[in-house]
TrEMBL record:
Organism encoding this protein: Rattus norvegicus
Physiological role: Putative pheromone receptor implicated in the regulation of social as well as reproductive behavior.
Lineage of source species: Eukaryota, Metazoa, Chordata, Craniata, Vertebrata
Mode of membrane association: Multi-pass membrane protein
Pfam families per record: V1R
Ranges for domain G-protein coupled receptors family 1 profile: 18-280
Alphabetically ordered keywords of this record: Cell membrane, Disulfide bond, G-protein coupled receptor, Membrane, Pheromone response, Receptor, Transducer, Transmembrane, Transmembrane helix
Family (UniProt): Belongs to the G-protein coupled receptor 1 family.
SUPFAM superfamilies according to UniProt: Family A G protein-coupled receptor-like
Compartments it resides in: Cell membrane
InterPro entries: GPCR_Rhodpsn_7TM, Vmron_rcpt_1
Protein name, entry field: Vomeronasal type-1 receptor
Length: 302
């Protein structure tokens, strides 16, 4: 088990460093230059992923609560609520990113083209409503979890060393599961539809440019590169999401949380926020240019 925990710490460290680098870059772009409509969304997604890594695996959050000497019941409710909110934010913001990119590359003859010039105005409003929605939708987590009391009669399900899920009526548990699953399925469905739309647009674009321009010009298209990056992120997200969903739903429905499955679930949930910044850094031409400029300056000095 210690080797698995070491892997989790390495994964978390890599994810935090990559996301912090990406966050600093987006802050630099947003403050000092003209950002694209996608940059505020990507910046918010990066912040969400930093929070997810720090809280989802309970790697550093537990130590912070212990230093503050917070009561165990409040600590468990805060951690569980935070995890639920951040998970929802990751789903919604990734969905928003794919939808806005689909609007960006849509042809002028499509119905979505009329939203292109309003994207900057919609970004801030959309992010605000996403935060409000997830904070309110995750409020039930405060009532369903608490400190582990070590009393067998209560039939608690231990999810960490000090936290457990409280027993609920089967109907209430089923309704809660259906509502949360419906929300996730809706946003994942929108995400997949937007991704399918982008694939169709890219295919048409590539077929048209084969007759008009060279393949090298098509490969150099920044919109195409950005779209391919988002499609890759969506594929990674959907894969990680369904693995996490299967583990979570099985544990809730069977009312059993195995330590090994929980550790594997932490690894899976931290995989997406760790992979995302690495993909964005390697595919964003602006970041590559900045790194090349810094490298050339370094060689000039030495």
């Amino acid at each position: 088990m210690s080797s698995l925990e070491n892997i989790l710490y390495f994964q978390a460290g890599l994810g935090v460093l990559a996301n912090m680098f990406l966050l600093l870059f987006y802050i630099f772009i947003i403050i000092g230059h003209r950002p694209t409509p996608m940059d505020p969304i990507s910046c918010q997604l990066t912040v969400t992923h930093i929070m997810m890594i720090l809280t989802r695996g309970n790697i550093w959050l537990v130590d912070i609560f212990e230093l503050l000497n917070i009561e165990n019941d409040i600590k468990c409710k805060a951690m569980f609520f935070t995890n639920r909110v951040i998970r929802g934010l990751s789903i919604c913001i990734t969905c928003l990113l794919s939808v806005f990119q689909a609007i960006t590359i849509s042809p002028s003859t499509s119905l979505m083209a009329r939203f292109k010039h309003k994207l900057k105005r919609y970004v801030i409003n959309a992010l605000f409503y996403i935060w409000v929605f997830n904070l309110s939708a995750s409020s039930d987590a405060i009532l369903s979890v608490g400190g582990f009391t070590n009393v067998s009669e209560i039939k608690q399900v231990k999810i960490t060393k000090t936290c457990s899920l409280f027993p609920m009526n089967y109907i209430i548990r089923g309704l809660t599961f259906i509502l949360s699953s419906s929300r996730d399925v809706f946003f994942v469905g929108v995400m997949l539809n937007a991704s399918a739309y982008m694939v169709i647009i890219l295919h048409r674009h590539q077929r048209q440019h084969r007759n008009l321009h060279s393949i090298s010009h098509l490969r150099a298209s920044p919109e195409k590169k950005a779209t391919q990056t988002i499609l890759l992120l969506v594929v990674c997200f959907v894969t990680m999401y369904w693995v996490d969903f299967i583990i979570s739903s099985t544990s809730v429905l069977l009312w059993v949380y195995h330590p090994v499955s929980l550790t594997f679930q932490k690894f899976v949930t931290n995989a997406y926020p760790t992979i995302t910044p690495l993909v964005q850094i390697s595919s964003d031409k602006r970041i590559i240019n900045v790194l090349k400029n810094q490298q050339s300056k370094f060689h000039r000095i030495f």
